[in-house]
Automatic annotation (TrEMBL):
Domain Integrase catalytic per the UniProt entry, residue ranges: 170-255
Annotated Pfam families: HTH_38
Gene3D superfamilies, per database record: Homeodomain-like, Ribonuclease H-like superfamily/Ribonuclease H
Annotated keywords: DNA recombination, RNA-binding
Protein name, per record: DNA binding protein
Originating organism: Fusarium pseudoanthophilum
Length: 255
C-alpha cells in the first residue's frame, strides 16, 4: 500500500518558516518536524510566493485554494441565486433550507452547507461584505452604553486596544484572533465567529443564547483543540456577551 500523506498543520508551517529563515537545511527541518525531507521540499516549492518567499499564512491560503472543490452553491447558479435572494431579505440559513425543502418536496440543501458557503467566501476573499447575508442586529448594538455609562467599563479584565502588544496589530505573527457575534435581527439567532488575523482562518458556531457564560464556553471549546502557538491572544469588541472572556486564561490565551 502507498504511504498516506498527512497535511501539514499551521503550527508546522510556522516552524518551517522559522527554521528556514534561520538557515536550516531541508533535512534539518524534516528531522525537527519528524517529516520526510520530500514533504518539506514540496512545501517550500509549492507554497513560496515570488515576492514574500515562504510565509505560513500564504502557504495556508494556497492549501485551502487547492483543496476547495466548490459547494453546490458554487456549481449551481440557480440554487445560489435562490439562497442569496432569501438571505438578502433577512432569512436565516435554517429558514432558507426549510422553505426550499417544502417547495421541492425534498431536502435541497442543508443549512450547514449554506453557513459553510458564506464562511468560505469570507475566508477565501476576505470580503466582509458577505456578512450582509447573515443579518446583524445593528439597532441593538447601537444602543449599547447610552444609559449608565458604557458596558465596557463593567467588564472585568478589559484591556484597551491601545495597550495591546504591537504584534496583535500587524498580520505577521500567527496566533492572534478577533471574535465577533453576528446576530440575526429578526429571529433571535446569533453566530460566534473567530478570525485569525495572519492566516485569515475563520471559525464559527451557532449560539442558542448570547449569555456571556455560554459564549465563553463555546470560545474555550473552539480554542482548546488548537496548538498553543496559534492561540496567543483574542481581541473582542465591548459587547457584554464577551464579559466572561477571562475563561480563556485557562488556555493561556491573553484577552
Amino acid at each position: 500500500m502507498g504511504r498516506t500523506y498527512k497535511q501539514l498543520s499551521l503550527e508546522e508551517r510556522c516552524e518551517i518558516a522559522r527554521l528556514s529563515a534561520g538557515g536550516s537545511s531541508i533535512r534539518q527541518i524534516a528531522a525537527a518536524l519528524d517529516r520526510p525531507p520530500s514533504t518539506i521540499s514540496r512545501e517550500l516549492n509549492r507554497n513560496s510566493g515570488v515576492q514574500v518567499g515562504y510565509k505560513p499564512s500564504y502557504a495556508q491560503q494556497q492549501m485551502r485554494a487547492r483543496r476547495w472543490t466548490g459547494s453546490r452553491l458554487e456549481r449551481e447558479p440557480g440554487l445560489r441565486r435562490a439562497v442569496l435572494e432569501r438571505l438578502g431579505r433577512g432569512w436565516s440559513p435554517e429558514q432558507v433550507a426549510g422553505r426550499l425543502a417544502r417547495e421541492h418536496g425534498r431536502k435541497v440543501i442543508s443549512y450547514e452547507s449554506i453557513y459553510r458557503f458564506i464562511y468560505a467566501q469570507l475566508t477565501r476573499t476576505s470580503d466582509f461584505s458577505w456578512r450582509r447575508y447573515l443579518p446583524r442586529g445593528k439597532s441593538k448594538r447601537g444602543r449599547r452604553g447610552k444609559r449608565g455609562g458604557s458596558p465596557a467599563s463593567f467588564i472585568e479584565g478589559r484591556v484597551s486596544l491601545d495597550l495591546r502588544p504591537v504584534e496583535v496589530a500587524d498580520r505577521k505573527t500567527p496566533g492572534h484572533w478577533e471574535a465577533d457575534l453576528m446576530m440575526f435581527s429578526k429571529y433571535g439567532q446569533q453566530i460566534l465567529a473567530v478570525h485569525e488575523r495572519t492566516s485569515r482562518l475563520l471559525l464559527g458556531v451557532p449560539l442558542a443564547s448570547k449569555l456571556a457564560s455560554g459564549v465563553a464556553h463555546h470560545l474555550v471549546r473552539l480554542f482548546e483543540v488548537l496548538p498553543q502557538p496559534i492561540r496567543q491572544t483574542v481581541t473582542f469588541d465591548n459587547g457584554t456577551e464577551f464579559a466572561s472572556h477571562l475563561a480563556l486564561q485557562s488556555l493561556l490565551i491573553k484577552t
